[in-house]
From TrEMBL:
Signal peptide: none
Organism field: Equus caballus
InterPro entries: ADP-ribose_metab_enzymes (IPR050892), Macro_dom-like (IPR043472)
Protein name stated in the entry: O-acyl-ADP-ribose deacylase 1
Organism superkingdom: Eukaryota
PANTHER family reported in the protein's UniProt record: ADP-RIBOSE GLYCOHYDROLASE OARD1, PROTEIN C6ORF130
Amino acid sequence: PRIGCGLDRLQWENVSAMIEEVFEATDIRINVYTL
């Protein structure tokens, strides 16, 4: 499962938004892959 969306039962839309907010002011590139 995507980070935070397995046992934690969070919604991916919320987790994704949090990740984007945390890293938007950095030079770090985040890639999410789904298998």
